[in-house]
Amino acid sequence: MAFPDNFLWGGATAANQCEGAYNEGNKGDCISDHLTGGSLTVKRQFTDKIDSEKSYPSHEAIDFYHHYKEDISLFAQMGMKAYRMSIAWTRIFPNGDEESPNEEGLNFYDAIFDECAKYGIEPVVTLMHFDMPFHLFKTYGGFQNRKVIDYFVHFAKTVFERYKGKVHYWLTFNEINFACIPMGSLELLGIYDERTTDYTKPYDVPQKRYQALHHVFLASARVVKIGHEIDPNNQIGCMISHVTQYPLTSHPEDMLYVQQQNQQFNDFAADVQIRGEYPYYMNRFFEDNEIHVKWEIGDEQTLKEGCVDYYSFSYYMTNCQSIIKSNEEHSAGNLLEGISNPYLEVSEWGWQIDPIGLRYTLNKIYDRYGLPIMIVENGLGANDVVNDDGTIDDDYRITYLKAHIEQMHEAIKDGVNLIGYTMWTPIDIISSSTGEMKKRYGLIYVDKKDDGTGTLKRMPKKSYYWYKKVIESNGEIL
Ligand code: BG6
Q1: What is the strand order of the sheet 245-247 is part of?
Q2: For the domain that residue 393 is a member of, what is the CATH number?
Q3: Who lines ligand 1 at CB under 6 A?
Q4: Distance 432 CA to ligand 1 centre (A)
C-alpha cells in the first residue's frame, strides 16, 4: 500500500457541531443555534426563539472554543496533516450584514490557524457549514434574497484577506447539493415556509428553492474569483454530498430513473461549480416541474469566472432507487433516503455501508471532471461504550475506515487523482441530523451525554492509535 507522498491525511469537523460558546466573543446566533436536540426517533425542532425549556446542542457542543489547544495537540500527536474545519460566519459578522467584522471572532481563527501551523497541520476551511446568520434568515429570507450574496462575499473576502498565507485550501458551501432536495431548504438556503411543521420535511416551493440555489451558485463563483485574486495560491473547491444511487433492478426504467436521480442530486451543483454553466439535463427538469430560475445580466459571466479548483465530497453510503419496485423496504440515509440494498450492511443509524461504492464513485467523479479530488467526510456514527479502565474498543469504526481506505487506494491505482482524506471526525462532536452526542464519529471520545452532563474530558479510542499508524505508514499499515 502506498499513497502519494504529500497525501493529506486528516480529519474534519464543523463549527456549529464542535465549538459551542454560541454567544461568546460577540458571536451572533446562526440557524443551527435554533435547532433542538433529537434522536433517531425524536426529530430535532427548529424554534424561532431560544426556548429556555429546550436544549440546543450547538450552544455548548464539545466546547472546542475553549479546548482547541488540547484538541489540536491531540490531532497533531495522531499525525494529522490536514484539519478540515469551518469558520462560523456569525463569529465574524454576528448579524451577517455589518460593514466591519468582529475582531474577537477573527482572533479566534487566527489562534486556531497558528496552532495548526505549529504542528504543520494544513487547514482546509469551509466557509459555510449549515450556519447562516439567523438575522439574514429572518430579515432577508436567506439566499432567496440577492442581497445575501453580497453579505456572503463580504464575509469571504474578509477571511481570505485576514488568513492569507495561513490557509490554502478552501471550500465554499458544505454539501451545496443539499439544496436539490426540500430538506436542505433551511440549513443551506435559509428558507423556512410558515406552513412547515417539521423542518426535515419542509413545505416546499421548488421555484423558491432553485432560485435561492442559483444565488448560492453566484455567491460561490464570486468568492472563488475573489479568493484567487487575493491569493493565487488559494485552492478553492466545491463540496458535494455524493450519495451514489444504484438501480434496484436492471429494468431499463430503473436505469433511466437512477441516471436522472444521480444527475439531479449528485451532479447538478458540481457541474455548475466546475464547468461554470448549468448542465443541459436541468432544462427538462425545470420545464417538467414548472421552475423558472430568474437570471440577471452578468450571471452567466459570474458563473464562468468562478470555477472551482478541485472536487471535494462527503461519502458515507450509497442507496438503491426503483420505480418498478418502489414499495421495497426503505433505508435511512445521509440527506437522501432510498431503497435498501440487499448486499449491504447498515450502521446502527441505518446508513448502508458501501466501501466498494467509494471506488466506484471516485472513478465516476474523476472521469467526469478530471480534477483533483479530496474526500472531506467519511466515517461511522456509533454508540461507543467506555470500558471500566477508560479505554474504548471501537473495532467496528476501524473496520469501516479500513475498508474505505483500501478502496481509496484501489481508486488511486485506477488512476484517480485523490489528494486527501479528512475523515469524519477526529473527535466526537454532535450529530447534525439528530443533534445527539450518542451518535459518535470520533477517534477521540468526549465525555458528554445527550442530557448535557459530562466532564468534557477527551479520551483517545482504539481507532485513534490505529489511524496514527495509518498516517505514519502513509496508508501501508491498515
Ligand atoms: C454530513 C454533514 O451530511 O454528514 C455533517 O456535512 C454531518 O455536518 C455528517 O455531521 C454526518 O451526519 P450526522 O447527521 O450523522 O451527523
Answers
A1: 245-247, 319-321, 338-339, 330-331
A2: 3.20.20.80
A3: 14, 17, 174-175, 241, 314, 334-335, 377, 381, 424, 431-433, 439
A4: 5
- Residue appearing with cell numbers 428553492: 209
What pLDDT is stored for residue 176 in this prediction? Answer: 98
| Ligand 1 atom 2 nearest Cα | 432
**Does the N-terminal peptide bond of residue 425 adopt cis geometry, omega within 30 degrees of 0?**
yes
DSSP 414: H
Active-site residue set: 175, 377
Q: What is the CA radius of gyration of the chain?
A: 21
Instruction: Flag whether 478 is in a domain.
Output: no
Total domains in the fold of the chain: 1
Question: Cell numbers of 412, please?
Answer: 488511486
What gap in Å lies between CA 59 and CA 305, rounded to an integer? Answer: 38
Q: Tell me, what's the pLDDT at 321?
A: 93
Q: Give the Å distance between the CA of 15 and the centre of ligand 1.
A: 12
β-pairing verdict for 373-377 and 352-353:
unpaired
pLDDT value, residue 330: 80
> Which residue owns the Cα nearest ligand 1 atom 15?
431
DSSP element (H, E) containing 418:
strand 418-424
Q: Decide if pLDDT at 60 tops 60.
A: yes
In a domain, 59, yes or no: yes
Place of cell 426540500: 182
> Residue 298 domain-assigned?
yes
Q: Can you give the residue range of the structural domain that contains 400?
A: 8-472
Give CB contacts under 8 A, 24+ apart, made by 199-203: 199/35, 199/44, 199/45, 199/46, 200/43, 200/44, 200/433
Is 233 part of a structural domain of the chain?
yes
pTM above 0.85, yes or no: yes
